[in-house]
Amino acid sequence: MYTFKHATMKLTIFSKALLILLLAGGWSACKDEKLNITTPPVGLGGDSTGTTPTDVFIHDNLTVPYNIAVYYKWQPGMLDFPYDIVPPLEAQVKPALEALIAVTFKPYNDQTGSTAFLRKYLPKTLKLAGTAQYESNGTIILGQAEGGTAMLLYEINKFTRQAKDSAILKDMGHTMHHEFGHILHQNIMYPVTFRSITPAYTGNWFNVTDQDARMEGFISAYAESDPSEDFVEMIATMLIGGRNGLSGYDDYEKIMAEQTGGPGSESYNLLRAKEAAVVDYFASAWKIDFYALQRKCRLELTGYFQ
Amino acid sequence: MKKILIYLLCISAVLAGCDRKSDLNIDGKSTDQRLSEALATYQNKLADAPYGWILTETTAGSAMNGGVSVTAPRAVFSYYMKFDKNFKVSMISDFSPPTSTTFNTSSYSIKATQRPTLVFDTYSYVHLPCDPDPSVSNSPLGGGFGWGTDFEFAFADNISAAELGDTIHLSGNLNNAKAILVKATQEEQTIFTTTGFGAYNTFNKILTYFKRVTGGAEAFEMTPGIGGRSVNIKSPSNRQLVNVACQFTARSIRFETPVTIAGQSISSLDDLVWNGGTISAKINGTAAANIAPALSPIAPEPGIALAFYNEGFDNPWLAGPGFHVNGVDDAYNILKLTYPGGNYLAFVFYPGLVNGGGGRFFDVLSPFFTGLTDTGYPYLFSGGVAFTRVASGRLVFVMLDGGDGVVNPPGLLATNTIFDTGKVAPPYGSSSQGFYIVRKENGTSYDMVTAGDALGWMTWAHP
After folding, report:
1. Residues B455, B335 within the same domain
2. B245 to each of B215, B218, B294, B432, how far by Cα in Å?
3. Interchain contact, A90 vs B36, CB within 8 Å
4. Looking at beta carbons, which residues of chain B come within 8 Å of A94?
5. CATH number of the domain enclosing B408
6. Are residues B282 and B419 in the same domain?
7. Mutate: best of B122, B173, B333, partner A, most A CBs <10 A
8. What superkingdom heads the lineage (chain B) (predicted)?
């Protein structure tokens, strides 16, 4: 027993010394490993797909002024995976983005005095798709915001500047205002009282027509789905208008006058109350005169069509 | 003893931690370097082919959207494409007459996903059959589904990029469609750049529904399969419909599987030449044959018109698009028909729905809109009601003018004229010859073909 103990002690002393040596050796050996940080890894910028004039346009007009990356080329798994969605036609990308900047970004810049506001709050990623995302309930998704970091714009292939097809650009602008509205209220929440103006929200919004929704004090059928959607649908409709059937598009005031039951009706008053809540929110949370912004949006929009 | 173990553990941990073999370098190259090299090898393989590639894509018989998989008709799409080093690809395809001759340039990329993947990453002809908008893809599956084709393809040969030969197998990532890339020869390149998918163009110069092939063991008839990406073949001795997907090349129509007619196995019609009205061809590349337009079915199904009509009682027939006329799908843009507040669902044929009084019932033959608060048949009483009879095995309609205030849009007026006359254009003759009813390959949908000229047809199915 004694011998064994003795041996253990020796081993202890010896091994402690060895351990220190080994650690030192190990440390220096580990230090040798060089991390190559000059070449980005494959899939994170390390693989090129060629630079096109579209890429240059995006860099100059969105990446530099707004710090936004635009993905128009298809990346596996970038959009909802098991859906039949296709990438945009490259020739459509530049005109669609130009229109988006002119019709939705510029009014905000003019109103706030610089690009600083949008640069700070716009999502840092735009993902483009050529077509819409078709849902099994019969609805189609034209845009989505991913937690304030990315915005998805669909149906780029249908974009046109033709005045007769103005609904397509208005739809895109509507999506942009809608999703940007989400980002604003995800940063500063709208007052809780907004939820109680029309408390009857429903998951079955897609069974309701826009016309019926407007008679119930919602600006669109989708606004019935949830208070946040209601809030941003108000913003988007006030800034760029809303759908009237499949191909029509109406100005906010036209919808208010023709599709709500008119001044004095309950639905009209409910929508005006929501309008006031939106205007107050922009004034108190963001120091933005919403009506002035609205005028600038309309001006840019009418100037854009051919 | 315990201590010894702890020390041994510590020592081995230190040793293992610094073991230089544990990094993933092979031949002194890091994972990223090897990945980049492999991707570049794949790209060079495609871009270095001097005369381009012929891509043939075959659907797996299903289409996926939103996690829902639906059964899709089999279809084959062919492309001639040339890849360059700047990630651009130019191509023609047999999707439609314009795409079969006009080259289109888009981009591609090679991605390291679970398998190395070729992605057609901006919109191109490859995306046309994938498009979820049925007015673009002409897919019979409705909104949200294309044909079950893909534009993201994994390299499926399971060999390294450097070992790939002149035939490369691909497998679609979403719909599992199979594609084969075959290196083109100089001769093929010349043909594709000068005449495009010539066989597709030539075959589709015959605009009639019935195309009759003579010269083989027995004359047979080719009619379009569901959605028009396959053909249905029938002959007097073989009245059972044979559906076969077909591939169009520069000069040939190849059947996916050989078709047997009167004992003769036919796998292709080759060397198609347009002779101003008919097409000369060679069956299996040898026996001289002739493809000619026909105005009536070669072997009509007895009693089919009446059976079709009767089946519509209490179970309406629906057609998504309107008439295919003179080679143009939905020639009058019925799919895009609008009515304020409503969404176009389908054209509906609903026998016996309209009570005309005095024991007389009429049939609805009108567009149907959802989302309308009234009856949902905005155009019904201004020409969407038919009086129908069966004559000589054909359905003959007389469209009734109800005199309702709604004015029909021009596309609908043209559609109603075809219903009324059984022809797509004048001269109409004194009485309508009506429509042939032809059962499709699935047994449950039917084509209604203008008996006057066989140049117009509409496909009906139950919802």
Report:
1. yes
2. 22, 21, 21, 34
3. no
4. none
5. 2.40.128
6. no
7. B122
8. Bacteria
Choose among A39, A87, A247: nearest Cβ to B122. A87
Q: Which of A42, A73, A77 sits opposite B112 (nearest CB)?
A: A42
Please give the full DSSP string across B129-191, using - where no structure is assigned: GG-S-HHHH--TT-TT--SS--SEEEE-S-S-GGG--SEEEEEESSS--EEEEEEPPHHHHHH
Q: For residue B250, is it within any domain?
A: yes
User: Considering only alpha carbons, which residue of chain A is nearest residue B121?
Assistant: A74
pLDDT per position as a tens digit, B385-411: 999 999 999 999 999 876 677 788 899
pLDDT digits (tens, 9 = 90+) for B294-303: 999 999 999 9
Are B190 and B204 in a shared domain? Answer: no
Q: Quick check: A82 and B17 CB within 8 A?
A: no
Domain count, chain B: 3
Question: What structural domains does chain A harbor?
Answer: 53-304 (3.40.390.70)
Residues comprising chain B, all counted? 463
Please tell me which residue of chain A has the smallest CA distance to B132: A84
- B269/B323 same-domain check: no
Residues B246 and B373 in one domain: no
In this model, does residue A72 exceed pLDDT 90?
yes
Residue B453: inside a domain: yes
B163 and B290 share one domain = no
Residues of A in contact with B63 (CB under 8 A): 84
Q: Which of A87, A130, A134 sits opposite B144 (nearest CB)?
A: A134
In a domain, B426, yes or no: yes
Whether residues B228 and B171 fall in one domain: no
Q: Is residue B431 part of a domain?
A: yes
Say if residue A41 is preceded by a cis peptide, omega within 30 of 0: no
Domain residues for B210? 199-294
What pLDDT, in 10s, does the model give residues B403-445?
Answer: 677 788 899 999 999 999 999 999 998 899 999 999 999 899 9
pLDDT at A85: 94
Q: pLDDT tier at B189 (50, 70, 90 boundaries)?
A: very high
Quote ipTM for the complex: 0.78
**CA neighbor of B461 nearest in space, from B441, B444, B442:** B444
N- to C-terminal Cα distance for chain B? 79
Q: Are residues B214 and B270 in the same domain?
A: yes
